[in-house]
Amino acid sequence: MLDVLDNTRTMRGAADVLGISIAAVSKACIELETLLDGRLFERGGGVLTPTQLCVRLLEVGQRIADDLTLLSPDLCAVQDSLRGTVRIGFQAPALQAHIPRWFAAIKNQHPFLTLTCEYGMRRQMLNELVADRYDILLIDLLGIETWPSLDSQCLHTVLCGIGDGKRKISMPAIMDDWPRYVDRMWLLPLRGMAMRDRFDALLSSRRLPPPERVIEINSPLSSFEIQEQTDALRIVGLETLFSNRPDQTPDVTMPPESLLMAMGVVWARSRAISPSARLVLETIRAPYP
């Protein structure tokens, strides 16, 4: 909990990440301060500032956690198989086809290792990765550079456009003729999902009004069938620009109004990673065959 409070610097932010009430966070913090006979945070203006006691406690706690992580191979190796659980957060449709190959390679080598893959909302999963509730994320990399405690690798880049079920049109062409499309039915990702954020930002950059007739979804499942039944416009892939192969590079220069989707793997750089999680991470980061 201290680590989450240190990252969020607010009781409300910590409560949101931990999934508990603000009162529960405050109570736990007060109980810790009573136990340690010292203040952990200075409170002012709604912001928490860690005291020297808190900083010292976090440093010692991180060292203990790192030592336990390094010790885990001796504790979990059974018949040459790693044990334990690797927690993976997922919101990357373009990478979905690779998951069976990754999981098969890992389970064939380490049958006792449990792989947990959970579909979720991107920002919440990033917060939970920082809070050590996930080991690895497979997500859109939009804005990942603003998370200094995290590291990432791009695995797949796709140039997207708008499809009406019969043809695909680039986003700049759509915006050039926006009055023709704004009143159509639109099938879009939920607000807060990376591709929706890109779509809204492009419209905003030209001061174009957002469409009002909208169906919002957080999964690509049945999106084609929904489009057929509603005659909606939706975001579709136009061209794969990069796939994690030895002969390709993710450095792609595109016009500023391009609807670009970059999917990849994200992990915490600020803490030691367990041998099991490192095995999964190295399998995912390896070039595609």
Oligomer: single chain
The third-level CATH topology of the domain at 157-259 is D-Maltodextrin-Binding Protein, domain 2
Instruction: Give the topology string: H per helix, E per strand.
Output: HHHEEHEHEHEEEHHEHEHEEH
Mean pLDDT: 86
Structural class: alpha/beta
Taken as a percent bin, the fraction of beta residues is: 15-25%
- Rg calculated over all Cα atoms: 22 Å
The CATH level-2 architecture of the domain at 157-259 is identified as 3-Layer(aba) Sandwich
CATH class of the domain at 157-259: Alpha Beta
- Shape annotation: globular
What percentage of residues falls in helices of 4 or more residues? 40-55%
Number of helices: 11
* Biggest beta sheet summary: 9 strands, mixed
As residue ranges, the low-confidence spans are none
- Topology, number of strands: 11
Distance between the termini: 41 Å
Family: Belongs to the LysR transcriptional regulatory family.
GO molecular function: DNA binding; DNA-binding transcription factor activity
Keywords: DNA-binding, Transcription, Transcription regulation
Pfam families: HTH_1, LysR_substrate
Structural features, described:
Belongs to the LysR transcriptional regulatory family. InterPro entries: HTH-type_LysR_regulators (IPR050950), LysR_HTH_N (IPR000847), LysR_subst-bd (IPR005119), WH-like_DNA-bd_sf (IPR036388), WH_DNA-bd_sf (IPR036390). This is LysR family transcriptional regulator. Residues 1-51 form the HTH lysR-type domain. It comes from Ameyamaea chiangmaiensis. This protein has 289 residues and is α/β, with parallel strands linked by helices. Among the domains are: 1-76, Arc Repressor Mutant, subunit A (Orthogonal Bundle); 157-259, D-Maltodextrin-Binding Protein, domain 2, CATH 3.40.190. 40% of the residues lie in helices and 25% in strands. The chain has eleven helices and eleven strands. The strands form two sheets. Strands 3, 4, 5, 6, 7, 8, 9, 10 and 11 form a nine-stranded mixed sheet that branches. A two-stranded antiparallel ribbon has the order 1-2. Helix 1 (2-8) packs across helix 2 (11-18) and helix 5 (99-109) packs across helix 11. The radius of gyration is 22 Å and the shape is globular.
